[in-house]
Structures are given as structure tokens and as C-alpha cells.
Amino acid sequence: MKRICIVAMMMGIVCLISCNHTKTAPEGADDSTAVAVANVVQNEVPEESLTVSEINTNDDNIFTVVYAISDDGFVNVRETPSAKAAILDTLWMAFHGLGNGVLVEGQEGWSKVSVGEHVGWVNNRYIDYQRWYDGEGDSILVAAKDPTPLYGENYVDDGDYPLFTTVKKGTILADHFIIHNGYYNLLTGHDYIFIKLEDAQIVVK
Question: pTM value?
């Protein structure tokens, strides 16, 4: 008899805990309200949404890869926009159709770029640009996190994609892309740039 009472008490405690942690629709709510409550429980925080009018289409907000086109295959990345400034890094020619720098700010004569861990300046005479956005696509891919990681091809083994760069939230990534194996893929001349599906948002025009 004691064993039955103990089991009954334990079942009652479990039921009480379960009931206290379950979100239910208020009394008198119709089916639509119940569904709405269920969705809140499932999603917890609703996803943010953007409209085309809210997207910054300025040139400096569009993801742009930069690469060298000089005769010797590289250009120096300098501390300031001057040929006499200290050299911070090297911007190389396109490899498999993809450069190793990312445009930060374009100006007449010089461009501010991010290369590896450095941000510096390169002479516009020796560089070219690559974008995946031209404003002609049916939808726009926008960076959804701050910062948003973008990955490149793994040329060494079959492991994870290496980090290529990061961009600020709201950056226009592309309006020409495909979706494959959990990533948005931006096709270069030969390879891909990869963005995880949860790190970007599609805005339909």
C-alpha cells in the first residue's frame, strides 16, 4: 500500500512540473489563437524581416572581392593612400577566379580593402573587382548577422570550409546564387563562396 501511495505522489509531482512548464492558450481562445501560441513556443523569437526599401544599395554596402591586375601579379596594401606609406600586406591576383581582398571603401585613386587581418589601401590602377549583385536578380541575399562569416573552398582536404572574410549585418551579398547542402553558394570563375543558410536572408523584390 505504501508503494502505491509513493508512486501516486511521484506521478502527481511530475504532472505538476510538466503543467507549469507548458505554454497553453488562454481560456476561451479559438483554434487560431492556440496555433499562434504553439508557434511562439516553437520559434521563441520571431525572425526579423527586411523589405527591399530598407536595404542600403550604396556601393560600399555591396560585398565586393578585390584582386590585383598588375604585371607582377600583386599589389601592396599600404597603411594610408600613398605610394610612400608603410606596406601592411599583399593583394594577389585572382586565384581560381577569386581575389584575396574585400572592398571596404572605394575612393578616387585608392580603395580601402580588407586583406587577411589587415585593412589598408591599394592603388586603383592595379586592381579589379568582382560582385555577385548587379540589381537584376529576382531576389537579394543579405547578411543577417553582425558579423556574418563567408567561407571559401577547402583546397587541402574534405574538411570544413575555411573562413574567407566577415561582413557587417545588412551587407548585400548577391542577387545571383544557388542553395545547396545547407549553404547559399556564390559561384566565382571556378569555385564558390559559401554562406550558411542561417547567416543570411533572402529578400524578394
Answer: 0.74
